[in-house]
Design brief:
The protein is mainly beta and about 325 residues long. The chain has one domain: Single-stranded right-handed beta-helix, Pectin lyase-like (Pectate Lyase C-like), CATH 2.160.20. The chain is about 0% helix and about 40% strand. The chain has an 18-stranded parallel sheet that branches. A ten-stranded parallel sheet has the order 6-8-10-13-16-19-22-25-27-29. The radius of gyration is 21 Å and the shape is elongated.
Length: about 325
């Protein structure tokens, strides 16, 4: 997933006069203060102040938006919202202060179903069944949010979706912090494969796993802190694969990394100290082991300092242990 957007991308900063560039033509538009609290996107942007709305203002702005528009959100929106197909390159920007609180526990707080290149940034997202659900082939950048106390999962990527998940705090969700499922792909902790430093997420204190990759899905997980989750820091299962490098994985209630059911993990590379090469580390032991494997799984690369109270590794008889033996010390 590329970090940049094409020539129709609207870039908006501050509350001063703005310039929107499209196909080489600049157009000056008014300040945010000149807009109504739930104005339709005009010249590529809109402002929704949910503290002044009677409800539904954010969804109305999404429904009116054109591809490439940016919706600036302020206040607290008590809504479950949906971004449907056709809203490609749409941005929801909370400016680091706005909240979306999904009151209906049977719906996801933000559902992205079909559009490509959606950006969700600067929001506190809570309530709902899931905080953010990206599905049905959608793609998204989820950047700089706090996703807290969702009824089940903090973020779901499902049904052939892809997302870059960077600079977020994902915590206290009832089940999984980030769920990657159903042939989905997650890039977690970085923007592009050319990055030399992480854009790290903090994934902590979730009700089961910090991250779970399942049902023929894949993830590349680099540079994050994954700690204090009730079960595993990272769970990889059901014919899935994850490349896991340069993360701090510690203090989780069972295993740091658990791989099972014909799945595999690559722990960085055999040499190197860069973001995609470095091994993972534990500073506070996981309760059981640093990494465990069952039912036809495999692990390759370097163990680093992954550890648990019962020792660093636990591989079942059907698992392939290809960890660098010079970096793996069994208890």
């Amino acid at each position: 997933m590329e970090s940049g957007i094409g020539p129709q991308r609207v870039i908006i900063t501050g509350a001063c006069a703005l310039v929107v560039f499209g196909f080489g033509t600049g157009v000056t538009v008014p300040t945010l203060a000149a807009q109504s609290t739930a104005s339709a996107p005009s010249n590529g942007w809109a402002h929704v102040d949910c503290d002044k709305e009677h409800g539904g203002g954010l969804q109305r702005a999404i429904d009116r938006a054109n591809p490439g528009d940016t919706i600036h959100v302020s206040g607290t929106c008590y809504e479950n919202v949906s971004i449907p197909a056709g809203k490609d390159l749409l941005t929801l920007d909370g400016g680091g202060v706005a909240t979306i609180d999904g009151p209906d526990a049977t719906l996801n707080t933000i559902l992205v179903r079909g559009p490509r290149g959606v950006t969700i940034t600067g929001l506190t997202i809570t309530g709902g069944r899931a905080g953010i659900d990206v599905s049905r082939g959608s793609s998204a950048l989820i950047d700089g949010n706090t996703i807290d106390r969702a009824g089940r999962n903090g973020i779901i990527l499902g049904a052939f979706a892809t997302a870059n998940i960077v600079n977020n705090t994902i915590q206290n969700n009832a089940v999984i912090g980030i769920l990657v499922t159903g042939n989905a792909f997650g890039f977690i902790g970085f923007r592009t494969a050319d990055d030399t430093s992480a854009s790290p997420n903090t994934i902590r204190n979730n009700g089961t796993h910090g991250i779970s990759v399942t049902l023929s899905s894949s993830a590349r997980i680099a540079g994050n802190t994954i700690s204090g989750n009730t079960r595993h820091g990272i769970n990889v299962e059901r014919a899935s694969q994850a490349t896991i490098s340069d993360n701090t994985i510690d203090g989780n209630g069972q295993y740091g990394i658990y791989v099972t059911e014909n799945s595999g993990v690559n722990l960085g590379s055999d040499t190197g100290a860069g973001l995609f090469d470095a091994p993972n580390r534990t500073t506070v032991n996981n309760l059981l082991r640093g990494i465990a494997c069952r039912v036809g799984g495999y692990a390759n690369g370097r163990r680093g300092t992954l550890n648990g109270n019962a020792g660093p590794t636990d591989f079942g008889a059907t698992c392939v242990n290809s960890l660098d033996v010079s970096d793996t010390v069994e208890p």
